[in-house]
Amino acid sequence: MTINRQWLLARRPVGAVSRDDFRFHEAAVPEPADGDVLVRTMYFGYDASQRIWLTDDGGYMPPIQIGEPMRTMGIGQVVDSRDPSYAVGDIVAGFMSWQDYVLVRGDGPMPLMVLPDAGYPLTWNLGIFGVGGLTAYFGVTDGLKVKPGDTVVVSAATGATGYLAGGIAKALGAKKVIGTAGGPEKCDWIVEQAGYDAAIDYKSEDIGARLAELCPEGVDAYFDNVGGDMLDTLLLHMAPRGRILICGAMSSGYTDVQMQGPRNYMQICTQMLSVQGILLPFYRDQLEDGAKQLAEWVVNGTLRVEEQVVSGFDKAPDLLPTMFSGKEPGKLILHVSDPV
Amino acid sequence: MTINRQWLLARRPVGAVSRDDFRFHEAAVPEPADGDVLVRTMYFGYDASQRIWLTDDGGYMPPIQIGEPMRTMGIGQVVDSRDPSYAVGDIVAGFMSWQDYVLVRGDGPMPLMVLPDAGYPLTWNLGIFGVGGLTAYFGVTDGLKVKPGDTVVVSAATGATGYLAGGIAKALGAKKVIGTAGGPEKCDWIVEQAGYDAAIDYKSEDIGARLAELCPEGVDAYFDNVGGDMLDTLLLHMAPRGRILICGAMSSGYTDVQMQGPRNYMQICTQMLSVQGILLPFYRDQLEDGAKQLAEWVVNGTLRVEEQVVSGFDKAPDLLPTMFSGKEPGKLILHVSDPV
Hints:
Chain A is α/β, with parallel strands linked by helices. Chain A has helices spanning about 50-55, 130-145, 160-170, 185-190, 205-215, 230-235, 265-270, 285-300, 315-320, and strands at about 5-10, 20-30, 35-45, 70-80, 90-95, 100-105, 115, 150-155, 175-180, 200, 220-225, 240-245, 275, 305-310, 330-335. In chain A, the strands form three sheets. In chain A, strands 3, 4, 5, 6, 7, 14 and 15 form a seven-stranded mixed sheet that branches. In chain A, strand 11 (about 220-225), helix 6 (about 230-235) and strand 12 form a beta-alpha-beta unit. In chain A, helix 2 (about 130-145) crosses helix 3 and helix 2 crosses helix 8 (about 285-300). The longest helix of chain A is centred in the middle third of the chain and has 13 residues, at about 130-145.
């Protein structure tokens, strides 16, 4: 009998997520029923939203229950199918979980997407063509409506979304794109590798003073991935009629702890700012167009693709906490198996 | 010699503003220099923003200094003019201060507007055609973009801005307009007099429960005049892609005390909300159009005009604290003299 390795949620994390919130388990490979697709997992993508799914209410998705395998965006190969839309051998992407084998309803609310052999690494479907890349794309183009001449700031600028947001803003003609990150190495990377014009090291620099110096006329568009004090500081440095995108709140760690609201939010009133949220499912019908534009920018060298691919099913829970600490730039991906 | 009565700022208020923050003074009537216009004041309008001007940094305007007469929006009559744009006898509106006589630069950054004899009460220039009415107009039409079928909530719905915001939303075809206010009398007034469909008494009712009951599909547009816990509650009841207008933060009293930021602001992200600020000077070039539309709605009975006009120069500082407590519905105005 083939063993299905799993990482189950052992306890609901309080505060920062830890590898000890999960426990290893071995189960039998599930038997597909009518309408089911059995997938052997190949890659797991790491997203900050996974921490939200671990809270009591799960945020915008059902919470993961104790004893259930941890949910993830993933790529895998169909090994058995009772749904005519999926054939054995198909490479698919979508919501999976930390197991060797996942059973997915072909007609469920979160169907798998069959990936064509597109001539680029499969992992790109989790990164630049996944949640991070598409969120950066729609956030910058539609949410912030970045236009030529804009001064743009992106926080968590080495993250899977942030590094692309800066590149996309430059592609749209932004005059100056500034990223924030922690530590000199990451700051160097932003400017030297991700095409940003300048970086602010939030760990060692006075962010307000640096913004005043770099953006004397104020910030036209701010792509917020972190919330907290950073958002409050940016609120004080926005140009009149500036735009803010609320994309994430990494500084909160997405725990159940009460969020810190932006205390300077009345700047929205007095500077007549626009604040826009973004959640990818709202762009359901435009995802393909977004991916096409991103692909064009990658092909012509406007955007680079940055990934950190780690191997080994046993490492699944270790990587999650690094989402919130000092991980390397770009998209974090775990490789768990190869296609047959 | 004619005496110029004044109410000067005696000390910078800490917390809620009090009548004791001002002191009475008698001065000589100032002598106009070249380019000056001398105005005898007739009406003072009361605006929540006056509290902001009393803070150390003044917010979006220069702060009022200790020993200076308190700034106000006002109406008066030109009694001496050294500026060819203003004639003796003209009735004018604009930034004035709590004095019998104010000296204004005709070409200054805040010029006076000469009021035509328009066949309606002069006080309307401080209310429906003043900051409150025009803020309601641009807030509902441009900021919130209220459209037919919308479910709209307005907080501080008996205020000079709030009562009109609800009426304007109805005029634009909103399906349901709900106001919040303190106490059963005000709640009755909102529904019976201001054209709202329903009211929530924030002093005695569970706002969240009432919103869930009245807006089962969520709130499409929220006109926020109060901030604080109300804004946080509304954030939990917005419809996907809902719009919020940040117009005021009455609950804060506009003191120097650190504002309470909206702790549920990540709903902006997960419901993909739009949050828009409003400050009337940004609509400088459209004010006339706004006033025209408002006048049309008043003439055809769509909007009612509600004012509380109190008489007596000596009452000027007494009325300011009532902006933040239990004043009567509509615009609060002090009458200080009649035209000659």
